[in-house]
Amino acid sequence: MYTTELGKTDGSLAQISQEDPALVEAFEARVAADEFIEPKDWMPEAYRRTLVRQISQHAHSEIVGMLPEGNWLTRAPSLRRKAVLLAKIQDEAGHGLYLYCAAETLGVSRAEMIDALHTGRAKYSTIFNYPTLTWADIGAIGWLVDGAAIMNQVPLQRTSYGPYARAMVRVCKEESFHQRQGYEIMMAMCAGTPDQKAMAQDALDRWWWPSLMMFGPPDDNSPNSAQSMRWRIKRDSNDELRQKFVDITKPQADHLGLEIPDKDLKWNEARGHYDFGAIDWEEFYAVVRGEGPVAKERMKARREAWEQGAWVRDAADAHEAKQRARASA
Amino acid sequence: MNRDFFPADTRTDSAPHGAMFDYLLRLGDDSLILCQRLTEWCGHAPALEIDLSLANIGLDLIGQATLFLNFAGAIEDRGRDGDRLAFHRDASDFRNCLLVEQPNGDFAQTMARQFLFSTAQLGLFEQLMLSTEPRIAEIAAKGVKEVRYHADLAADWIVRLGDGTDESRNRMVVGLDWCWRFIDELFLVDDVEAGLIEQGIAVDRSALRGAFDARLSSVLADAGLPAPVYPRGVRGGRAGRHSEHLGHLLATMQHLPRSYPDAVW
Fold it and tell me: What's the predicted TM-score (pTM) here?
């Protein structure tokens, strides 16, 4: 998971025009030919900055995304569910780690990226600013949130920057296991007691719209998407992916016997797609601004973990330095 | 000298399903409760790499707990499986040692607890691989590789933190100091285990103390930390007399299955 502002680019086109036209042309040609750009290759500064922002945002989302699920790890209702959820959250920590590493190949350190997160300069996916209120939310996150993430990420396996594309290959394999575990939780709850079924419906009611927002703003309000598509950082438009998600998810909800909370959702024979209702973009932009329901809790938890762990990281560094000094003495 | 706070357990005869069942609960509950503690760190560890390694240990422990508790349920033969035993027993029916239920504290205290428990568990599993009960031998053989990693990883942190900075050294001393009173219990042999030891099913824990002390001394020396001064030992976990902490831990862990007893998750 998970990026919110896939369409944005950093740096102005004017800056590109100051770069060596021959280099720019060669770069554009390689990208157009679907070649991977590697860390040592020349790249436009705006391309580099766009990638740093996108990959680090993706990494931050993995790390912040551990918190809403961690909220239920200590209350997972069976030994198997606890083990599976722990494994899933561990995967997310792993995704964060290799995404930070991928971003570091672009000349930015993990400490700098984490500082940008903690000071609010870097974003993470809006979805993690919503609370997990029942166990069914763990199912809904796997089913919907990881489902939306897969939709976003499968195309990124062919993104133009090599280290990012290769990281996504591994991430996608694990995300599909995550989605299955989420759907399996929903199946168990929907086949369970009336209380469980009600929890499942309530979770869908609360997570549906935020999940649709994960694909980012509508195409007509995503002005930088064109550049990212041309650079093949991004390969499908927000609205295309969102439509695909709705089309795949509606039959899955039917199978569970759950109702998607959208009275305008209906099959459109002529389009060959589901029509769906208007998204509350005001809510989306508020959450992007950091005004999501539990945004403060999430950032507080991350900052505290970092600050309270500083002495551990310092100790590890000090020990390593002493070891080196002893070895060379 | 009797360093034990509580009198010797006299309730072993009341163990309704026999010593074997009780022994399996001890093994399974140790792993389960420590796993539960480690999951409290999830998303809050001092570094991403530490989150990953704590999750690794937690996954191994819950695997062990599942195997031991399912086997306990089969031995008991009253229709309880591992989940039933994990989520529907009261604190007084838990048989874990007091060390594993201790709060995480800071990272130094968590690593102190991990090192001490895993080092003792490693000695135990190495011998349990030879148990005359094949299922126990099998679970121990699988677990021993995992536990060796846990003990080594925690030992590395004891050394790193002991040797690192003044602050980390002080925290390590305080973290270990929290744990010393629970060490005797790890090597306690009571009537429940005595009979099983005779049959070659259980391991004589008291015989494992020497190797434990030697490993402890060596790691503390590497870390530049002082040798332990053991206070009067506190025990009772194996008889269901726990610290105040376990009730809270279970209230969280068992909340859903207890609130919805008819639900399957």
Answer: 0.94
